[in-house]
From TrEMBL:
Name of the molecule in the record: DZIP3-like HEPN domain-containing protein
Domain DZIP3-like HEPN: residue ranges: 63-187
Organism: Mytilus edulis (Blue mussel)
One Pfam family from the record: HEPN_DZIP3
Length: 260
């Protein structure tokens, strides 16, 4: 999950880029910045669901709340050691039942490491190691790399990141998310002989999530991306549909002309 600070930082970058586009007569984004946005969507939209699939095997949805309550003292100690943040701790002890749908990747990793004794390293595993722990570590490692990439990723790194991340996602989800990974790449890639499925440019969205302006970028095939009120919006140029996601990568509501 992107933290609030990450989202604000990414939003600032997008706003600066929009201003640059308008000032320079709608010049196209650099490929390295497109690569960053593409990988961010992969990490935000799909990777957390792969982690949740294994998380729910370790902590059955019917008992996760009980397990957390039973380990209240231990979790508070983790907060004192700054392994858990205050916001993460508040989320775990919110009113009502706890669901993995409410947890981001870092929070699930803390619980897996400390309550289920799953050994998730912080370094990149060997390329020949395909254990569950190694695939979880890969997602954590590359997630950090992407968020600390200065929002630019070279074409060479993009291919390595994409292949490694999607490989881990597919294995962790028992193949259930393979089609979504392939669909996301297809949507974000412009084929030489086909019309791009995703729009060319940006939607400028106000704080209520309403589209105020469209900015066309010739020669680019990026989806529109905007962040507003702790939600990420992406939109399709050809249909006008707007997709809304929370910061855990979960789509909120169905696609619609007016965003959620």
């Amino acid at each position: 999950m992107w933290t609030y600070n990450h989202v604000v930082h990414a939003t600032t970058l997008i706003k600066k880029k929009m201003k640059k586009i308008l000032k320079l007569d709608k010049m196209a984004l650099e490929a390295s910045e497109e690569n960053f946005l593409r990988l961010s969507l992969l990490v935000l939209r799909i990777a957390p669901r792969a982690v949740r699939q294994h998380f729910d095997k370790e902590f059955h949805p019917k008992v996760i709340t009980k397990v957390i309550r039973q380990n209240r003292l231990k979790l508070h100690v983790l907060r004192e050691k700054r392994i858990l943040s205050s916001s993460q701790l508040s989320l775990l002890f919110q009113d009502g039942e706890v669901s993995s749908d409410d947890l981001d990747i870092p929070t699930m990793f803390v619980l897996l490491r400390n309550l289920a004794d799953v050994q998730i390293t912080t370094h990149l595993p060997y390329s020949t190691d395909f254990t569950i722990e190694s695939d979880l570590a890969r997602l954590g490692f590359y997630r950090k790399q992407i968020l600390h990439s200065q929002h630019t990723i070279s074409n060479t790194d993009f291919k390595l990141f994409w292949d490694t991340i999607t490989g881990a996602i597919i294995r962790l989800s028992d193949g259930n998310l393979k089609d979504e990974c392939e669909s996301l790449l297809k949507e974000l890639s412009s084929g030489a002989d086909e019309k791009p499925r995703w729009g060319i440019g940006y939607l400028i969205i106000d704080l209520s999530g309403k589209v105020q302006q469209t900015v066309t970028i010739e020669g680019s095939n990026m989806p529109y991306v905007s962040v507003s009120q702790d939600k990420l919006y992406s939109a399709r140029w050809d249909t006008g549909e707007i997709f809304c996601y929370d910061l855990q990568g979960k789509q909120t509501g169905n696609s619609r002309i007016n965003p959620c």
